[in-house]
Design brief:
Blueprint: E1 4-10, E2 13-22, H1 26-40, E3 45-56, H2 58-73, E4 77-81, H3 85-93, E5 102-103, H4 106-111
Parallel strand pairs: 2-3, 3-4, 4-5
Antiparallel strand pairs: 1-2
Helix pairs in contact: 1-2
């Protein structure tokens, strides 16, 4: 199953809605490249909506961490939204839940960037 990505700009925050699997191959490469492009274009405040992601493998987790690092390096941040039970459990097991800010509500995720997000 392919990974589908839909972008929307909400109050100055780029929301990337993902659907499908984040696994080794075209999916992770496409996600990594898209986030790289967004950060290069000045969108360093990113929310990944994972509500329709049904599977993430170790390479997918590595891609999330690399994307987080890339955004932080450019003065921004990357936050996660709408984790499925499976993805939530995976982040708990790998202790990546201590790295990422995770939200269940889009407004809370966007608002977490502070006043700069509403500009």
């Amino acid at each position: 199953m392919a990974l589908y990505m839909v972008e929307k700009l909400v109050s100055g925050v780029m929301v990337l809605v993902l659907r499908g699997r984040v696994t080794l191959g075209e999916e992770t490469e496409a996600l990594r490249e898209r986030i790289r492009q967004l950060v290069a274009a000045g969108h360093s405040r990113i929310v990944l909506d994972l509500g329709e992601v049904n599977y993430i493998d170790s390479v997918g987790l590595s891609t999330l961490v690399a994307s987080y690092t890339s955004a932080r390096r450019d003065g921004g941040d990357l936050k996660l939204l709408n984790l499925t039970r499976r993805v939530h459990d995976l982040l708990q097991i790998t202790r990546l839940s201590t790295v990422f800010d995770v939200y269940d509500d889009l407004d809370a995720a966007v608002g977490s960037f502070g006043e700069a997000a509403s500009a």
